[in-house]
């Protein structure tokens, strides 16, 4: 049986950077299994997706699109674009963790990343209203992906 | 991007790195060479502690550890510890016994995690010629896997003791909100035994890396404690005779505002640039390391006389071993304290705290009013203390590498900067790499 893991990455105290966490929280609340929240720490992320066949990631993105826009990216074969920056203050973020796992041969065969375009990443700020809509959309897309 | 530079004359090379890769946060370097001579070296740091100093005014002394912990995602424990010690100093109380040991344990976790990240993911690729750990992992799989696992042991100490791996929430002025039970540490103990072996391998592995022949007569400054390798307490000492109480820090060190950087640059008054961090600690506290650390250091030819900053990668590895051994020692004799914290009432006083963050001294001073609210806060992070020394290193190093092309020269400079593991933390912007090289 296919084992899917969903991870929402972010920082609850950095404005729109909370987007990934909100996605994970919402999906867990609806009883979906294997859903995790993560600060983006490399080794912990890699441990969370160890042995999974399908990895679905949600994170805030910065690509220049309208805030709240959901970007879908298939990272199964190709590296993540720059729109997925390190989400924490670590110099190693989600994109690096994915690429490091790819180098080490431990990346799940199917990797889909949902980026929720953010606007403000200020300390102590709350996520903006556009982000809440983006979180809902990303959650819906992840649920669809899980049904495949 | 180079619009703000004057026109480039002949025989002038300008190397401008707008976003330094593999440093924590955001920084930039600007180097200008004319006729084989360094004309200008600037390390630009976008650093937010000043914002926090203002932000804390009017907040209760009890809030300082949690607020300042947000300054850095890599060394939140350092900020919490310096803040707690400063507040306890203001209140005239001391945290002792098992609570003191637990703080030390938490700090060990941060050293392991921070040094692990730097040694394996950020610094080692420099020596082996890889642009990043991702490329390095393809050829050095076992090393990278060991590094990730080692770093995670450090994070796990934070998980068990701090409540979570980044920005621990369990620390308070006077101790902890909740002290762990002995059984909470069972898995950690097993992991640390593995980590001791891994740290030994790391020391041997880093010692084999190719090191440039570069030495400098630095003034090393760090804490010194009569009984232990310094983390939380001690006097401030240097290899040039400094020996002062933490509360005297500002009488001996001052910060200069430099127009091109957000960070203030510290100098030792009457002496100039100085050096904080693992190399300073090892140089001035070598005899406080465990016998095993000293033996490993001797085996790889490292001693208190090391003055080559490139070899800091070995020094960090020795400190990883030390932190693993020290954590095991603390776990071995751990008994949960009767109370998870002591009562602290700080008001109407000024408190000073200085602890050893992974990258070096982190100084805090707070002036409190009668209600215990913060009237004035001062924070001096390690990176601003090292900034002048980093620029000096670049000034000395670059003439030896002028035969290299711009990419090669830039590589050497970035590596030299990374010797200090600069924590240009809390970047509100993300680290993006953008390079431009201009040469005549």
Give a verbal description of the structure:
The complex is a heterodimer of chains A (about 150) and B (about 450). Chain A is built from 4 helices and 5 strands. Chain A has about 150 residues and is of the alpha/beta class. A 5-stranded mixed sheet of chain A has the order 2-1-3-5-4, sandwiched between helices. The longest helix of chain A is centred in the last third of the chain and has 19 residues. Chain B has 2 domains: about 90 residues, no CATH class; about 325 residues, Cytochrome-c3 Hydrogenase, chain B. The longest helix of chain B is centred in the N-terminal third of the chain and has 32 residues. Chain B is globular.
Index terms:
heterodimer, A: alpha/beta, Rossmann fold, B: 440 residues, alpha+beta, Cytochrome-c3 Hydrogenase, chain B, 2 domains, four-stranded antiparallel beta sheet, 16 strands
Brief account:
The complex is a heterodimer of chains A (148) and B (440). Chain A is of the alpha/beta class and 148 residues long. Chain A has four helices and five strands.
């Amino acid at each position: 049986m296919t084992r899917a893991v969903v991870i929402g990455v972010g920082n609850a105290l950095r404005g729109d950077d909370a987007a990934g966490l909100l996605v994970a929280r919402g999906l867990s609340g609806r009883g979906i299994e294997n859903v995790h929240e993560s600060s983006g720490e490399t080794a912990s992320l890699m441990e969370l997706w160890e042995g999974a066949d399908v990895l679905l990631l949600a994170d805030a993105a910065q690509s220049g699109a309208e805030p709240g826009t959901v970007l879908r990216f298939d990272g199964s074969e190709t590296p993540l674009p720059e729109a997925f920056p390190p989400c924490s203050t670590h110099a190693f973020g989600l994109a690096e963790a994915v690429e490091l796992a790819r180098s080490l041969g431990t990346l799940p065969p199917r990797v889909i990343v949902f980026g929720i375009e953010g606007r403000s990443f200020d300390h102590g700020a709350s996520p903006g209203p556009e982000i809440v809509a983006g979180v809902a959309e990303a959650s819906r897309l992840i649920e669809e992906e899980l049904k495949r | 991007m180079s619009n703000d530079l004057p026109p480039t004359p002949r025989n002038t090379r300008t190397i401008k790195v707008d976003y330094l890769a593999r440093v924590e946060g955001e920084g930039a370097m600007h180097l200008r060479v004319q006729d084989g001579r360094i004309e200008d070296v600037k390390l630009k740091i976008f650093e937010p502690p000043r914002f926090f100093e203002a932000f804390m005014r009017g907040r209760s002394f009890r809030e300082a550890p949690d607020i300042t912990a947000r300054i850095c995602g890599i060394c939140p424990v350092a900020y919490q510890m310096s803040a707690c010690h400063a507040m306890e100093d203001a209140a005239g109380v001391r945290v002792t016994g098992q609570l003191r040991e637990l703080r030390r344990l938490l700090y060990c976790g941060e050293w392991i995690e921070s040094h692990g990240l730097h040694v394996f993911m950020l610094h080692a690729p420099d020596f082996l010629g890889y642009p990043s750990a991702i490329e390095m992992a393809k050829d050095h799989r076992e090393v990278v896997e060991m590094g990730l696992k080692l770093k995670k042991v450090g994070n796990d100490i934070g998980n068990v003791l701090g409540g979570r791996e980044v920005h621990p929430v369990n620390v308070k002025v006077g101790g902890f909100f909740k002290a762990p039970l002995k059984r909470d540490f069972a898995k950690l103990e097993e992991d640390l035994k593995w980590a001791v072996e891994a740290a030994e391998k790391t020391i041997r592995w880093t010692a084999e890396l190719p090191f440039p022949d570069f030495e400098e007569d630095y003034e090393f400054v760090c804490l010194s404690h009569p009984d232990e390798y310094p983390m939380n307490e001690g006097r401030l000492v240097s290899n040039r005779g400094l020996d002062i109480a933490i509360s005297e820090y500002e009488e001996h060190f001052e910060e200069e505002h430099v127009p091109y950087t957000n960070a203030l640059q510290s100098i030792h008054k009457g002496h100039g640039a100085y050096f904080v961090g693992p190399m300073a600690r090892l140089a001035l506290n070598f005899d406080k390391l465990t016998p095993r650390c000293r033996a490993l250091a001797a085996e790889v030819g490292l001693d208190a006389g090391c003055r080559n900053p490139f070899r800091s990668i070995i020094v960090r590895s020795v400190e990883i071993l030390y932190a693993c051994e020290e954590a095991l020692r603390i776990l071995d004799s751990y008994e949960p304290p009767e109370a998870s914290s002591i009562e602290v009432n700080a008001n109407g006083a000024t408190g000073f705290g200085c602890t050893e963050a992974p990258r070096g001294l982190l100084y805090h001073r707070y002036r409190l009013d009668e209600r215990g609210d913060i009237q004035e806060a001062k924070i001096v992070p390690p990176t601003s203390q090292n900034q002048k020394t980093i620029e000096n290193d670049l000034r000395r190093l670059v003439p030896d590498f002028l035969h290299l092309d711009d990419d090669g020269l830039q590589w050497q400079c970035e590596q030299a900067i990374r010797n200090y593991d600069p924590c240009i933390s809390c970047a509100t912007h993300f680290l993006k790499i953008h390079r431009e090289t201009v040469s005549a």
